[in-house]
Specification:
The chain has helices at residues 87-91, 114-117; strands at 35-37, 41-46, 52-59, 61-66, 71-82, 94-95, 100-103, 106-110, 121-124. By secondary structure, the chain is mainly beta. It has one domain: Roll (Structural Genomics Hypothetical 15.5 Kd Protein In mrcA-pckA Intergenic Region, Chain A), CATH 3.10.290.70. Strands 4-5-7-8-9 form a 5-stranded mixed barrel. It is elongated and about 65 Å long. The chain starts with 34 loop residues before the first strand and ends with a strand.
């Protein structure tokens, strides 16, 4: 049985309410797995209304913008150098928005939310 966002079965006083119905599929919670540096692996999820969401689990390349050359290039991600969201994320190679990565072309900063977009967009840092 998965985690659910359905209403509680407890009253304000702490007593149990009667169970009116079972959990529904749309009430289940999608547990988020952070994106790590590694061989590319994605998970395709069905969303409400029949749409799909692409959720990367591991990723090893990204699209980097070089402001001096004014060009976009595809680069290999080597490792996470620092992560402002959590210091431990850098040690675990977890990518979030704002992370500073070591790439094949030098240092770069993540400017998107890779868990939402399914890809990593970077800007080169001098």
């Amino acid at each position: 049985m998965g985690m659910s966002n359905s209403s509680t079965l407890r009253k304000r006083t702490g007593g149990l309410k009667g169970k009116r119905r079972d959990k529904r599929k749309f009430e289940f919670v999608n547990l988020v797995k952070p994106i790590e540096v590694g061989e590319k692996e994605i998970k395709v999820l069905r969303s409400l209304g029949g749409g799909i969401k692409i959720r990367p689990l591991y990723i090893n390349e990204g699209n980097m913008y070089d402001p001096k050359a004014k060009k976009h290039i595809k680069v290999k991600i080597v490792r996470v150098l620092e992560n402002p969201a959590n210091r431990a994320y850098a040690r675990m190679n977890i990518i979030t928005k704002g992370s500073v990565l070591e790439t094949s072309e030098g240092k770069a900063k993540v400017i998107n939310r890779p868990g939402q977009d399914g890809q990593v967009s970077l800007v080169k840092i001098e």
